[in-house]
Amino acid sequence: MSRIGVITFPGSLDDVDAQRAVRYAGAEPVALWHADPDLHGVDAVVVPGGFSYGDYLRAGAIASLAPIMTEVLGAVARGLPVLGICNGFQILCEARLLPGALARNTGLHFVCRDQRLRVESTATAWTSAYTPGQEILVPLKSGEGRYVADAATVDRLEAEGRVVFRYLGGNPNGAVGDIAGISSADGRVVGLMPHPEHAIDPLYGPSADGLGVFASMVQAVAAA
Amino acid sequence: MPKPEILDPQGQAVAGALARLGVNGVESVRQGKHFELEVDETVDEETLERIAATLLANPVIEDWTVRQQA
Q1: Which of A25, A70, A171, A182 has the fewest CB atoms within 10 Å, i.e. the most exposed one?
Q2: Inter-chain contact B7–A106, Cβ cutoff 8 Å?
Q3: Residues A108, A155, A83, CA angle at the centre, nearest 5°?
Q4: Edge-first strand listing for the sheet containing A3-8
Q5: What angle do CA A153, A158, A159 make, to 5 degrees?
Q6: CB proximity under 8 Å: A 42-71 to B
Q7: In this structure, are residues A45 and A79 in contact, taking their beta carbons and an 8 Å threshold?
């Protein structure tokens, strides 16, 4: 059974839901601690949502320098798949594992709603279980979710098919190009603002559409 | 400070509040951060620049200036 690590920082909120999603997808979740510079041999890592270090300095800035992130950086260079959700996406951008940054929502409001997305790329370790162009419904809950990057970076992401998720039915936060999630050049590292881990069972969420993210990972690990 | 091309909705909200306060003539507001560091003589300008570029600011969306006072 594949083992997928979920990092807990001080202020992480969604680590337990991420662990549950991993379990639903048929893998074993492994709790990782921010101060423990050891990945315990996991096959992939999820950096969950929340408010790590109280969003002090900038969202994700302090967490990007946590001891475990040094290990994550080294492992990504060797091909470890990493998923950053919400605050996890902010952390991956601050750690320079993904280009760009997340800024305060244009409307200044914290946005909390069920959000329709289009899966723009299934060529990543975290989206292979979807069909290209598939529309999914997952919760979005963030105050600093506006994806920004310089025009050259956005053009490169679009041209290389690295925009993985795009907002549908109105842009909730002013993100450039309606971008909700992006990937690294090799498709191993993915970050997105909406929360697939909150939509794995219709009993608890708006859909089970988010489970595909974790199912993709299990497939990718099994194929490796 | 947020780079000029980065939309600053917080600054815009402050500008809106100034207008409601009855202050005229403020054409725009941009909001940034200010850090004060007390350092000893071993911390040179280059180190301060590195601190600013790697931690205090996010070069993707922010510009910064380092100023030293005796």
Answers
A1: A70
A2: yes
A3: 65
A4: A28-33, A3-8, A44-47, A82-85, A189-192, A179-183, A163-167, A111-119, A135-142
A5: 95
A6: 57-58, 61, 65
A7: no
Could you tell me the pTM of the whole model? 0.94
What are the residues facing A119 on neighbouring strands?
A: A165
Binary contact (A103, B56; C-beta < 8 A): no
Nearest C-alpha neighbor of B32 from the set B55, B57, B67, B15: B57
**What ipTM was reported for this prediction?**
0.84
pLDDT one-digit tens code per residue, A171-197: 999 999 999 999 999 999 999 999 999
Structure tokens belonging to residue A104 = 């305060």
Q: Do B26 and B18 form a contact (C-beta atoms < 8 A)? A: yes
A180 phi and psi angles, rounded to 5 deg: -105, -25
Which residues of A100-142 form beta strands (DSSP E)? Answer: 101-103, 111-119, 135-142
The kind and range of the H/E element at A76 are: helix A67-77
Residue tagged active-site, from A71, A93, A195, A198 = A195
Q: Give, in degrees to the nearest 5, the angle at Cα B51 between B46 and B55.
A: 155
Chain A residue numbers touching B13 (CB-CB < 8 A) = 108
What chain A holds in terms of domains, given with CATH numbers, is 3-223 (3.40.50.880)
Of A70, A89, A6, give the one whose Cα is nearest residue A42: A6
Tens digit of pLDDT for each residue in A14-70?
A: 999 999 999 999 999 999 999 999 999 999 999 999 999 999 999 999 999 999 999
- Helix residue ranges, H only, A82-210: 87-94, 151-159
The residue among A141, A135, A139 whose CA lies nearest residue A117 is A135
A82 inside 8 A of chain B by CB:
no
Q: Single out the catalytic residue among A34, A71, A86, A144.
A: A86
